Amino acid sequence: MKNRKGLTLVDFTVVFVVVVFVLLLAIPLLTRGHRRLPRRLVCGTNLKGLGTAMNTYAFDYDDKFPVIGGVDAPWTKKLGWRYDNAGANYYPVGEQEHVGRTITASWYLLVREADVDPKSFICNGEGADEEMFESSENQDLVDLWDFGETPYERVSYAMQMPFGEYPATGASTASMAIAGDMSPWFKDGDMVWPGTINGGPQLITVDDKTTHKLGNSVHHKGEGQNVLYGDGHVEWTKTSNAGVENDNIYTYWSATQNPTEQDMQGGSNPVDRNKGTDSKSATDSFLAI
Prior knowledge:
alpha+beta, five-stranded antiparallel beta sheet, 7 strands, globular, two-stranded antiparallel sheet
């Protein structure tokens, strides 16, 4: 009977090389996943903090969430007055009562009224400091009205349309999406058109699950988004049909009377800033910027 031989030096070397090769392939994949997870958590934590600030604001303002004022003023990409105009007056008969107002300025009310750090509005917390405000008068942050000359570059979160018929309030349904990671239908403050068949954003087709992720926020490589709900909790959702009865949180319903699943989960994407670009029901989330 022959004696069994152990591993030879050559055998050991081959095994060692194979193990090292496998590790070299695996480590980048593992670290990449770990990098994405903390970013997702940071974005979710910031959003949770904004939700707390919104409820604090609502407590002081009759259950209303922050919305920059104006009398029948249009929804615009940039404010109709300089963000550092400390004397701006958008109340009736005020000089700015009819000029453009922005959703970013509505967010900014949390800086003015609830002592929220501007960095909290940036998903990764970078690039947001007092130097981003190029005010010639070196005013205090609470005297400003928006996040600088290009506010859409310094806000990572979309808010339930505050200027329409169905703004979110402190009394909104618990499962109502009131804010979330930036909508895929906005880039640099402008609205974008649906992408190609294999690219986003796209309207969800309810019966075609391959389209469901193409309606996600672009912040996390299209893998999903953090969503703030009416009861104050933040949840990571893998698709954008994450609102009341699977409502798509980034579009508005395609029909108001007896809407179908497709009307709610697919909906209509925003194409301009007119009054028709709005939620169609108190349970129709439409997160915008």
